[in-house]
Structure formats: structure tokens, C-alpha cells
Structure to design on (193 residues):
């Protein structure tokens, strides 16, 4: 059912570019059992809907099913949230995991086959990277992060275009070869702007 919520969330984000998602009127009943929900503010929520297992939201409002305790987050600015997650991923100092790579691809709304064509690999390779069956490798890891920078420029997201080479040099020179999963915590008050 988290999938259903995610679809709802994505549809709302597309419909409303301000990113108002899962508004209080939307979550009146549990998405799982249809029962009553309880509104709880200032909660910590593991954001598995992102497709990542290491992302936590802090200080957000959650609707909790009274019967089975399923929890549904109120996310008011999903674009900002996903931008913050993407930034945390691309700035990490170790190799990307398959899930992180997939998150970036989806965040950029790239189809696997189109990304495969850009990187000069097969669709199967993209799939094996994303499931963790195959190592992404240092060149494609870096290329993916650079693609994300280009994408941000295209989206006209705030982007410091000075000394790009120096910053990439600093960021990439100590990039560990092995993927490491760092906890990513996003605070709700950072999502307001
Ligand atoms: Zn329920």
C-alpha cells in the first residue's frame, strides 16, 4: 500500500507544482484498512517510499492508523524534499549504491533506456547496477553526479556555477570505491521554502 501512497503523492506533486502533498483532507482514513487515523505532529518517519532505506524525515506530521498503526506522512513540498535527498546523495563521499543511483535517475525523470544510451551501456547494465548485482564503477558514478549537476542547471535550481572544477576535484578525490550507506536525515522545517 505504500506504493499506492507513493502514486498519490507523485500525482499530487505533478498536479500542483508547489508540491502540496497529502494534505490533511486527503488523509482522513487509513490507506490500508480504511479505518480511522490519528494525526501526530513532530514525528520521525522512515521514508521508504523514496526507494531508499536510509532516509529519515524529522519533525513531520504523520497520520497513524488506530487499528494497525500504519503510518502515512504529510509531505508538503515533495520537490524540495527530493532535491534535498538528491543533493545529499550526490555529495556523499563514498560510491553510490544501486538504490541511490536509481533515486537520482528517477528524480531526473530519466527512463533507464535513455540513461543507458547516454552512458553508453546496455539497459541490462543499468538494471544490474540498480539492483546491486553489479558495481557501478568509479567513472559512471562520477558521470551520474555530473549529469545531476547539468540537470539542476536545466531546472534552474539554485546552483553555484563558480569554481565547479575545484569543487568537483575536492569532492571526488576522496571518493571511496565501495558504496557506504549513510543515514540521510531531512528536517521538516527545511522543507518550508
Ligand atoms: Zn489501517
Amino acid at each position: 500500500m505504500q506504493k499506492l501512497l507513493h502514486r498519490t503523492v507523485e500525482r499530487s506533486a505533478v498536479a500542483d507544482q508547489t508540491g502540496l502533498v497529502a494534505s490533511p483532507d486527503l488523509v482522513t482514513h487509513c490507506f490500508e484498512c480504511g479505518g480511522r487515523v490519528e494525526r501526530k505532529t513532530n514525528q520521525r518517519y522512515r521514508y521508504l517510499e523514496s526507494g531508499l532505506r536510509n532516509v529519515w524525515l524529522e519533525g513531520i506530521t504523520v497520520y497513524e492508523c488506530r487499528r494497525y498503526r500504519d503510518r502515512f506522512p504529510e509531505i508538503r513540498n515533495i520537490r524540495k524534499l527530493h532535491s534535498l535527498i538528491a543533493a545529499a546523495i550526490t555529495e556523499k563521499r563514498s560510491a553510490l549504491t544501486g538504490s541511490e543511483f536509481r533515486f537520482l535517475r528517477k528524480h531526473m525523470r530519466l527512463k533507464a533506456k535513455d540513461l543507458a544510451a547516454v552512458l553508453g551501456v546496455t539497459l541490462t547494465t543499468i538494471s544490474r547496477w540498480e539492483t546491486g548485482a553489479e558495481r557501478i564503477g568509479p567513472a559512471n558514478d562520477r558521470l551520474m553526479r555530473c549529469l545531476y549537476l547539468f540537470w539542476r542547471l536545466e531546472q534552474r535550481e539554485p546552483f553555484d556555477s563558480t569554481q565547479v572544477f575545484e569543487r568537483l576535484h575536492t569532492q571526488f578525490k576522496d571518493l571511496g570505491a565501495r558504496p557506504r550507506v549513510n543515514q540521510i536525515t531531512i528536517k521538516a522545517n527545511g522543507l518550508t521554502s
The beta strands are 37-46, 55-65, 71-74, 94-95, 176-179, 184-187.
